[in-house]
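Researcher: I'd like a candidate sequence for this fold, 202 residues long. If you have to choose between options at a position, lean toward the conservative one.
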């Protein structure tokens, strides 16, 4: 691991995680290059800000569940290769029902140069501390569709409120939202804004 990076579970204990790209449960349908362990890695600045967000969310009765943090460049390259392969339909309905693989890139849901690779971006949601249940957000992680945009029409009042709760917590703790994905937040003052790393999550 590069200096100034840490495992989130060590730097900010108590935050839940499920590193989707280390598993078979992601839009490619298999573990992604660069993710050897199901753990979340990020800069020390990211981990500290997520710890603050966890504490703020707790005052509302919520906890954080992180799906991705630092993403090796080789994982992004894996996404690019996947996009050029024939469609097999295994994950299309769940993750990109109204787009082709290449349109996922054209519409900004997946990037050839990802903010995650700079180490200070996180994909996450909220869960209820009393039950452990994820809050309904009107669409799951990596649903590449307009329903995932902030302010999307058609959400229930509860779903819209839950997205606002997450955005308020994250923005109050130094993060900026990405308008096309309700789960995606980047530190406004990220320490490596021009550096794309490629060490393994292992």
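Model: Candidate sequence:
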């Amino acid at each position: 691991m590069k200096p100034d990076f840490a495992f989130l579970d060590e730097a900010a204990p108590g935050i839940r995680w499920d590193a989707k790209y280390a598993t078979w449960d992601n839009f490619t349908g298999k573990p992604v290059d660069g993710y050897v362990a199901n753990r979340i890695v990020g800069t020390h600045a990211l981990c500290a800000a997520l710890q603050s967000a966890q504490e703020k969310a707790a005052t509302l009765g919520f906890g954080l569940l992180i799906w991705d943090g630092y993403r090796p460049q080789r994982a992004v390259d894996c996404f690019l290769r996947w996009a050029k392969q024939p469609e097999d339909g295994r994950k299309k309905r769940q993750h990109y029902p109204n787009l082709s693989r290449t349109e996922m890139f054209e519409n900004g849901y997946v990037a050839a140069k990802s903010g995650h690779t700079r180490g200070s971006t996180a994909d996450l949601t909220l869960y209820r501390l009393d039950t452990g249940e994820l809050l309904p957000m009107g669409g799951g992680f990596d649903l590449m569709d307009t329903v995932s945009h902030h302010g999307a029409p058609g959400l229930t009042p509860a779903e819209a409120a839950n997205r606002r709760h997450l955005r308020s917590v994250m923005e109050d703790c130094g993060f900026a939202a990405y308008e096309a994905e309700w789960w995606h937040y980047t530190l406004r003052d990220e320490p490596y804004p021009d550096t794309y790393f490629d060490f393994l999550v292992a």
